[in-house]
């Protein structure tokens, strides 16, 4: 009965989204991150001695950050890459679902089920659980945790003191990310975010230059330096395996 309700679209909360709506939602999130970084970090100076956790994150996200922070046009993109790294981890690790022991439940599902059957279970579980007080409490806790992680890293690289105003603004777009993650989990198709590995060759089919360089052909000859906002990929129930090629709903924004 519960699955039938889900298939009919018992959507008292968020509706199922088409690809254009998903693109729009991610565009809004990307713009919110960009606005936050520009508002608070456009003219900052990186600290000389970075905390260990900040240095490790930067090396993973943007290995050439020491060169990029020397240029005003790319310095703020390094901060965006750090934010992207944290958001990507939250989406990929189901951090916004931890209140319902989501990972433990998922591991308990029969491994012989098809990936689409697992998607059906996932969508139903989220749709039924999100109305509970435990889910909402966990959602609020996860938003605070992700926001504090971003705040700690960005303050570590800038040397800024804690700011209630900056943190409140930060929590607003993390809240948007949480809503989007929960909505995607209820869709009949499978959506996953993907960061592009630094030093990968630029691919115009899956990436776009964060600085919007018009010379695509020239960019194709270069390697990317990091991802400032992840790609959004989609698999549908028409595919027999999750190993099939996904549709890129939104290209990754990268530093070239």
What pattern of helices and strands is seen along the backbone? HHHHHHHHHEEHEEEE
Question: Gap between N and C termini, in Å?
Answer: 50 Å
- Counting DSSP H or I runs of 4 or more residues, the number of helices is 10
Sheet of most strands = 3 strands, antiparallel
* Inertia-based shape: globular
Structural class comes to mainly alpha
Strand order of the largest sheet: 1-4-5
Assign a percent range to the helix content: 40-55%
Taking all residues together, what is the mean pLDDT?
85
Unreliable stretches: 1-14
Estimated radius of gyration: 19 Å
The share of residues in extended strands comes to 5-15%
Oligomer: single chain
**How many strands appear in the DSSP assignment?**
6
Q: What's the gist of this structure?
A:
With 256 residues, the chain is mainly α. It has helices at 2-8, 19-41, 52-61, 65-68, 72-92, 102-107, 115-129, 133-158, 164-185, 216-219, and strands at residues 190-194, 207-209, 226-229, 231-235, 247-250, 252-255. It starts with a helix and ends with a strand.
Structure description:
By secondary structure, this protein is mainly alpha-helical. It is built from 10 helices and 6 strands. The strands form 2 sheets. The chain has a 3-stranded antiparallel sheet. A 3-stranded mixed sheet has the order 2-6-3. Mean pLDDT is 85; it is low at 1-14.
Keywords:
256 residues; mainly alpha; 3-stranded antiparallel beta sheet; 3-stranded mixed beta sheet; 54% helix
């Amino acid at each position: 009965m519960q699955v039938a309700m889900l298939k009919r679209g018992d959507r008292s909360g968020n509706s199922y989204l088409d690809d254009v709506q998903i693109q729009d939602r991610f565009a809004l999130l990307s713009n919110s991150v960009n606005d936050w970084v520009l508002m608070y970090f456009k003219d900052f100076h990186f600290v000389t001695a970075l905390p260990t956790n900040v240095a490790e994150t930067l090396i993973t996200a943007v290995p050439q950050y020491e060169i990029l922070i020397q240029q005003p046009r790319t310095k703020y993109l390094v901060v965006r890459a750090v934010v992207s790294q944290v958001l990507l981890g939250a989406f990929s690790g189901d951090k916004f679902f931890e209140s319902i022991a989501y990972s433990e439940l998922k591991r308990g599902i029969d491994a012989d089920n098809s990936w689409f059957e697992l998607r059906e279970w996932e969508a139903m579980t989220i749709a039924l659980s999100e109305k509970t007080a435990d889910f909402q409490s966990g959602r609020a806790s996860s938003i605070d945790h992700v926001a504090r992680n971003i705040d700690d890293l960005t303050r570590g690289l800038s040397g800024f003191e804690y700011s209630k105003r900056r943190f409140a603004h930060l929590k607003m777009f993390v809240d948007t990310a949480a809503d989007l993650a929960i909505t995607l989990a209820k869709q009949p198709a499978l959506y996953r975010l993907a960061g592009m590995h630094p030093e990968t060759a630029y691919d115009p089919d899956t990436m776009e230059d964060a600085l919007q360089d018009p010379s695509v052909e020239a960019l194709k000859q270069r390697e990317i330096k990091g991802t400032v906002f992840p790609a959004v990929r989609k698999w549908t129930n028409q595919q027999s395996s999750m190993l099939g090629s996904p549709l890129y709903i939104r290209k990754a924004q990268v530093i070239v």
